Amino acid sequence: MPLCLLPNRLLPLPYCPLITCHASPAALRSSPSSPPPTLPNLLNNTTPVPSLSCALQCPHFQSCSGCTHELNLHRPIIVDEADQFFKSVGVSDFDFDSSRLWGWRSRAKLAVRGSSMKPLIGLYEEGTHNVVDIPHCKAHHPNINAAVELLRQGVTKLNIEPYDEDEGTGELRYVQMAVTTYNTSLPAPERYKNGKVQVSLVWNSRNENSHNFEKLNALANFLWRNGGPKSDVRFIHSVWANFQTSTNNIIFGNRWRHLLGESGFWEHAGGIDVSLSPSSFGQANTRAFDILLRKLQKYVPYGASVTDLYAGAGAIGLSLAATRKCRSVKCVEVNKESKLSFEKTVERLPNYVDSSISWHLADTSVEPLSWLMGSEVVVVDPPRKGLDASLLDVLRTISSLERKAKSAPESSYSKVKDEKRPWVLRAMKDSVQIGSKPALEGSESLPQTLIYISCGWESFKEDCKSLLSSKKWRLEKAHGFNFFPGTQRYCSFLFSCISLPKSAVSISLGALS
C-alpha cells in the first residue's frame, strides 16, 4: 500500500527530501460473471463504501497487479518500516496522513486491446502485455470509470479497431483519462465528485492526415455528444488526440491535437491554480498532493530564495512563491513539454506575488552546483531512482563548496556575460523569466534548507543515509502521505533539511505513497 512521509527537519545540515510512490501499471482482469454496468449506473452507483474495515473490496483485486494490498488501506505496512527508520536517524515524531482511500486516482493511462466488439480497456497483466479490463476499479475517480464505459460503447458502435501489438495494426492504442475538479461555481466539498474528465486518445497514425482520421473524429464526437455539456451526464471536459506509430513501449508520440471541449486544464493545489497539458506530468492523487504542498510550505521561511529541481511544470516552486512570498524561485526541469504549463500557471498567480521567478530547461545532473548558487532553500523531487549522483555529491560537500565560493575573488558563476558552457547556454535560451528582483547579497551562498520529494522508498533511504553520513545535514522532521492506497511497491516521501552553522545542517523529510 502506498504512503507518503515527510521527515523531520535537520539542523546544521541543509537537506529536505520528498518522495512519491506510484501504483504499478499492472493489468486487471474483469470477472466474466459480472458484466460492466451501463453508463448511468456507473455515475449513480449507490454501493456503500466500506468505511470501517478500510478494505479495498474491489472485484479486480486478485487479477490486478495495480493494487497489492486489500486490507488496512489507511495504514500500509511500509508506515511501520518508515517509523522505525526515522527513529533510527533521530526523528521520533514521524506522522502519516491517510487521505482518501477510494476513488483517489484522478489520472490514469490505460491500454486498449481486444476487438471492436469486445474491447479490453485496462492495464497490462503483471509480466506480460496481456491487457485485462478494470471497469469497476475502486482506485479510479468514479468519472474515469464512467468515461471508460462510454469509450467502450463508442469503440463498438463505430467499429474502432483496438491496437494489435504483434501486427502493429489497429487504430486506438491507449487512452489517458485525467480528472479536473477545478470548478469555482460549486461549493468546495462538491467539486471532487463532480470532476470532469479530459480524454486523450492515442491514435495509431503519424498525424491528422491519415486515412482513418475521420474515425478518430467520429469517436471524439461520440464522447462529446454523450458525455459533454449538452448530454444528460456532463462529465467529459475535453477530447484530445495523440499520434503514435512507434513499436516500442512509449505510450505517447510527439504530436498532439485538441479536438473538442476546453483547451485549458486546471487544478487547484497548494494555494494556486495549476495548468496541465495532456503531455505534462500530473499527480494521480491531487488531494494528497495538495496536503503535501501545504505541509511543505511550513518549512520554507518567508522571503526565501528557492531553487526547485526536477520541477516539472513548477507547481511546487510557484506555490511557494505565492504562499511564502519568496524573494526568488528558480525551477529547473529537463522535460520541454512542461514549459507551456509553467507559463500559464504563472499568468494566474495572485497579483500580490512579487517574486523573481524563472524556469530553465536543463538536466539537473549536469553541473548541479550552478543551480544551487544564491539559494537559501532547495526543493528536490527526483524520479524513483533518487537523486542524480552528481547532485548528491554536491549536497554532501556543500559546506566546503560554500567556503571555497566565498573565498574566491570572483565567482565563475557570476560571469554570465562570459558563459560558454553549451548546456548552460541552452538552458538560458529556453528559460522563462518573470520579475527581476536584485540578487541576494553574497550570491555565492548555498542552500541552508533542503526539502526532498521522491517516489522510491528504497532510493530515498540510501540518499538520506548518504546525506546524514556526510555530517553536513541533520534530519529534522518527517511526514507520510497515503498517495496510493492499496499499493505497497511505490511510495512517496518528503523531508526538509536545514544547514547548521559551519558543519551542521538540518533536514526536514517527508514521504508519500
TrEMBL record:
Binding-site residues, S-adenosyl-L-methionine: Q283, Y310, E333, D381
Record's keyword terms, sorted: Methyltransferase, S-adenosyl-L-methionine, Transferase
GO terms under biological process: methylation; RNA processing
One of the record's GO molecular function terms: RNA methyltransferase activity
Statement: the UniProt record of this protein carries the keyword Metal-binding: no
Record's keyword annotation contains Methyltransferase: yes
SUPFAM superfamilies documented for this protein: S-adenosyl-L-methionine-dependent methyltransferases
CDD domains for the chain: AdoMet_MTases
InterPro entries named among the record's database cross-references: RNA_M5U_MTase, SAM-dependent_MTases_sf, U5_MeTrfase_fam
Active site residues per record: C455
Family as reported in the entry's similarity comment: Belongs to the class I-like SAM-binding methyltransferase superfamily. RNA M5U methyltransferase family.
Protein's name according to its UniProt entry: Methyltransferase small domain-containing protein
Species in which this protein is naturally found: Populus trichocarpa (Western balsam poplar)
